[in-house]
Structure formats: C-alpha cells, structure tokens
Write a sequence for this structure.
C-alpha cells in the first residue's frame, strides 16, 4: 500500500472519529427521509444505535414530528440548495430528547436549534441533507429565567 493511500485512510479515519464524537447531532437524510448517518450525539440522546436507524424513515422513528411541516421545511434545502433553520423560540425541539443534566438543569427536555444543509452529489444534485442538532437548553433556560425576572420586577414596580 502506498504512502498516499495510507495517508488518505488515516485522514478518513480521523474524520469519521470526529463526526462520531462532536457534541452536535448529525443526521444525514435522503429524499425519502431515510437515515443514512446517525452520529454518537444522536445515539447518546435518542438511545437508538446507528444500526437501528440506518435506512429507516425519520418519521417512523419519531412519529411526533409534524411530517408535512418538516417536508415543507426541507423542500428548499433539496430544491434550491439553501440552508434552513429551526430555532428553539419557534419550536422548542424537533426530537424530544430528555435534558441530560437532570440535577443541574431546570428543563425536562433538550431545547434545540437545527440547521438543515444540502449535501451535493458529484453530479451536482442534492440527494441528501444534513440535519445538525444543537443543544441550546442552557440558553433557553437562561432566557426564560430572565423573562420571568423581568415580569416579577415589573409587577413589583407597579406595586411601589
């Protein structure tokens, strides 16, 4: 095996390791919304192994997802090659994962920001999208706490 091939294999290996260990959910979906990639974050928070989800439809795995809404949200990603965003203020979560900090966390579930990105094939067609799921529970809890404090302060000021 040539040095170049060994170098390429080594690079591929550490890239795959990075995809599995990054603290962001990574899911690759095809046009039928079948799961092609499911990283370690997703495994850890869903309790589902990659072998259990690969080639299965996202809507079968998570029937609570509003299928029509998600398909409409994904359409411009596939057709126009535009990224799409889902923020926790609009929809607290897409996949209801438990808050994994039950002792220090004040929320029952993980608040999520999600980015849908097109993945272009060698032919230039977008046959897959990447869904990146970010845990923003700390940000959401902080904002909710701030809003609650503002309401309390306003009520106190009205009484004074």
């Amino acid at each position: 095996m040539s040095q170049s091939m060994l170098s390429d294999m080594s690079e591929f290996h550490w890239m795959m390791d990075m995809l599995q260990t990054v603290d962001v959910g990574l899911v690759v979906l095809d046009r039928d919304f079948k799961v092609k990639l499911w990283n370690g974050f997703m495994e850890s928070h869903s309790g589902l192994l990659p072998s259990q989800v690969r080639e299965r439809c996202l809507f079968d795995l998570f029937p609570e997802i509003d299928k029509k809404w998600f398909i409409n949200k994904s359409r411009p990603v596939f057709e126009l090659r535009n990224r799409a965003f889902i923020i926790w203020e609009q929809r607290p979560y897409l996949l209801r994962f438990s808050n994994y900090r039950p002792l220090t966390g004040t929320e029952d579930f993980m608040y999520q920001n999600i980015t849908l990105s097109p993945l272009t094939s060698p032919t230039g067609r977008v046959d897959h999208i990447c869904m990146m799921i970010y845990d923003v529970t700390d940000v959401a809890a902080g904002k909710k706490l701030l809003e609650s404090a503002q309401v309390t302060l306003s009520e106190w000021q009205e009484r004074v």
About this structure: The chain has one domain: 3-97+113-135. The chain has a mean pLDDT of 87. The chain has six helices and five strands. The first strand starts at residue 25 and ends at 30.
